[in-house]
Design brief:
Length: 246
């Protein structure tokens, strides 16, 4: 039975002289991987809807477990042309696609994460938007949706409320902020400045608090901290990480 969905193209791999394997992160179905027969032809039913970071509407035939689905139709819904004019924004978009592709399971939809991904791509490369804080907001949403949101207002070691900003650390294995008393028992930790702790709290709250994170030093420390946490959780360094700015 054919299924329809709207999704973001996050990975494209050549399969044969005429076909491609396409990974699409959809609102309705989550991550799907389908074979687009004829997808490499200059003139095909897919046209240019299968370009990376293109929002498209798709029709696919779901196959049995272990087999690729068959992508039968794809039409462009939205492109993000401003990314092509801003190299840091483009690399950030590629990194977003990498996280969605490597960190999520097939057919596990997260509508809130889908909406945040599109909102991030809409903002990236736009006038006045700082790439680092906007990406950080997406990462926090991703972590929350997948069950890894860092604990910020209570110590991740002992569970006591964080009552002061000085002397804090962030523990990747603990999953959040550590008070001074719990730091000695945690091998995986990094010092956490009051400004970066406050920035993390802004990112975890509804709204556009990420726009208030402007100081270059805070942005740099925040980027290093999130790189550290994401790398720990994935068990490896993401491929696009070296290309990210703050």
């Amino acid at each position: 039975m054919a299924e329809k969905a709207q999704g973001l193209v996050i990975r494209v791999t050549d399969w044969s002289e005429t076909s491609r394997i396409v990974t699409v992160w959809t609102r309705e179905l989550g991550k799907v991987r389908g074979l687009a027969k004829g997808g490499r032809r200059l003139k095909s039913s897919f046209e240019s809807a299968l370009d990376l970071l293109t929002l498209c509407s798709i029709v696919l035939l779901r196959k049995s477990s272990g087999s690729l689905d068959l992508l039968t139709e794809a039409q462009v819904v939205r492109r993000y042309p401003q990314l092509r004019r801003n190299l840091p924004a483009l690399y950030t978009g590629y990194y977003l696609a990498e996280l969605l592709g490597d960190w999520t399971e097939d057919y596990d939809p997260h509508p809130a994460l889908f909406a945040e991904a599109l909102a991030t791509l809409e903002d990236l490369g736009s006038p006045g938007v700082l790439t680092g804080p906007r990406l950080a907001r997406f990462e926090i949403t991703l972590l929350r949706e997948l069950g890894y949101e860092p604990r910020l207002d209570m110590c991740a070691g002992c569970g006591r409320p964080i009552e002061r900003e000085e002397g804090l650390a962030f523990g990747a294995s603990a999953g959040g902020v550590l008070c001074e008393g719990c730091q000695t028992s945690q091998r995986e930790k990094r010092a956490l400045s009051p400004a970066v702790w406050e920035a993390l709290r802004k990112l975890s709250q509804p709204g556009e608090g990420w726009r208030e994170i402007e100081h270059p030093r805070v942005r740099g420390e925040l980027r290093q901290l999130l790189n550290y946490y994401v790398t720990y959780l994935l068990g490896r360094r993401p491929r696009l990480l070296p290309y990210l700015g703050s």
